[in-house]
């Protein structure tokens, strides 16, 4: 009996089974899993993903992110149309089917430099997770929750943002044994900052590949929180 209790104590004290892990410890462990060598600040790579949706043609996007050089480029092809947005140290360029556009012609194509910045922030955020959770303006909830989602138990980190950064509330679901990030989810908020339960989306993450020594998700399946409605899947096809 004594040996049984000793084994039990050992088991519950193993990484991934702690009842008292802090949000900072969870994030540290998750980053250690995804970016063990601290490569994210020097990230410089190009990758391709394909977005498939039930009611729309597939879209193929080629993304280049060079953080040290402050360079971002996304080229998206859908049907016969290819659009390109480039931000090079803040300088914006837009192309439509390979032709460089001035601001007036870009506006006719519904393309703007504001959208270029939006894309840069969006893709840098998603592909930089969980490392991006250390950015200024990011607020980690003090308490790490244990939640069951689709029959599997996760350590869940709740994240809010300073008003200047964003108003959505995010939840990040980590494998309790490996600390791999396997789901993220967000909700919109009302004028009082309260979550709207039927808003937002959740994203199921599966498979991994290495980019710049970082474990990056290969497959992301998107769903509305409301009624679990499927939106689409983007799949990394080239690293």
TrEMBL record:
Source domain of life:
Bacteria
One Pfam family of this chain:
DUF6503
InterPro entries listed in its UniProt record: DUF6503
Signal sequence: where? 1-18
Instruction: Give UniProt keywords alphabetically.
Output: Signal
Protein name according to UniProt: Aspartyl-tRNA synthetase
Instruction: Supply the source organism's classification.
Output: Bacteria, Pseudomonadati, Bacteroidota, Flavobacteriia, Flavobacteriales
């Amino acid at each position: 009996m004594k040996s049984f209790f000793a084994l039990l104590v050992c088991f519950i004290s193993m990484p991934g089974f702690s009842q008292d892990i802090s949000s900072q410890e969870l994030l540290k462990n998750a980053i250690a899993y995804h970016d063990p060598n601290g490569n994210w600040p020097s990230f410089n790579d190009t990758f391709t993903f394909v977005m498939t949706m039930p009611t729309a043609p597939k879209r193929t996007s080629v993304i280049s992110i060079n953080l040290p050089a402050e360079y971002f480029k996304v080229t998206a092809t859908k049907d016969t149309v290819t659009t390109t947005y480039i931000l090079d140290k803040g300088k914006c360029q837009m192309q439509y089917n390979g032709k460089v556009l001035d601001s007036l012609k870009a506006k006719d194509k519904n393309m703007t430099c504001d959208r270029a910045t939006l894309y840069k922030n969006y893709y840098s955020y998603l592909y930089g997770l969980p490392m991006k959770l250390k950015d200024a303006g990011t607020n980690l909830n003090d308490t790490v929750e244990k939640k069951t989602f689709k029959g599997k138990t996760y350590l869940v980190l709740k994240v809010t943002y300073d008003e200047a950064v964003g108003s959505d509330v995010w939840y990040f679901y980590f494998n309790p044994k490996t600390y791999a990030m396997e789901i993220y989810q967000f909700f919109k908020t009302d004028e009082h900052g309260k979550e709207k339960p039927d808003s937002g989306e959740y994203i199921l993450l599966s498979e991994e590949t290495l980019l710049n020594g970082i474990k990056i998700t290969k497959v992301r399946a998107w769903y509305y929180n409301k009624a679990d409605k499927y939106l689409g899947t983007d799949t990394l096809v080239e690293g």
